[in-house]
Amino acid sequence: MTEIYWFEFGRWNGEDYYEQMWKSNLIGLKNIIRLQEKLRFRLVHFSSSEVYGDYDGVMREDILDKLAIKQLNDYAISKWANELQIRNSQLLYNTETVIVRLFNTYGPGEFYHPYRSVNAKFCYHALMKLPVTVYKGHLRTSTYVDDAVRTIANISDNFIPGRIYNIGGKDLHTIENLVDIIWDYTGAPREIITYKESEILTTKVKRVDVSLAEKELDHKITVSLEDGLHRTIDWMKKYYNIK
């Protein structure tokens, strides 16, 4: 039996509701681990690209074991602490866990919330013609949900205890480019966009190495950023009944 679960998400969520975030992520995971030690099930833990913190090189899974990296916000710290909790249990009780570090996964089904990731948030703001702030100079990859889910599902067929996988896109894009695609497709007014310099407590460039997931989980990017955003916007139009 393999258990997959999800806890509190998002750096600003972690800042605004820090008590809930710490209780859910740290105490919640510890409870799951205690059950795992007793019942001996396999576990897939969702970590985050946020654990790479201020590292400005190519983000490979083993880099946190080689360098002292500073996580940039409470949420990131909690996700790294989660990984250490898992490692301790593996050493003490020989539990079997795979850790997944997700990079900006998006797509249909992700309804709007202020703490959602940038792709969903900007799609909603464009459709609703709501003001939005865009921070310049940040580089990201984006992973369409279908591609991420297919890769994650393959863990069950090739479960290697102790493995850590980056699951992300292959092509870097700016947040400004993301906005251009969304605004061009929706026809939203550009006047609602306010551009500012780099956002504080946020990694500027997330350059990810997904070669291990490609090799062991057949990770593939089949949906382009433009196509994925169009699909997401079309879904939101139906979900929110936007004509």
TrEMBL record:
Domain NAD-dependent epimerase/dehydratase positions: 17-168
Gene3D superfamilies, A to Z: NAD(P)-binding Rossmann-like Domain
Source organism superkingdom: Bacteria
SUPFAM superfamilies linked: NAD(P)-binding Rossmann-fold domains
Family: Belongs to the NAD(P)-dependent epimerase/dehydratase family.
Name of this chain's protein: NAD-dependent epimerase/dehydratase domain-containing protein
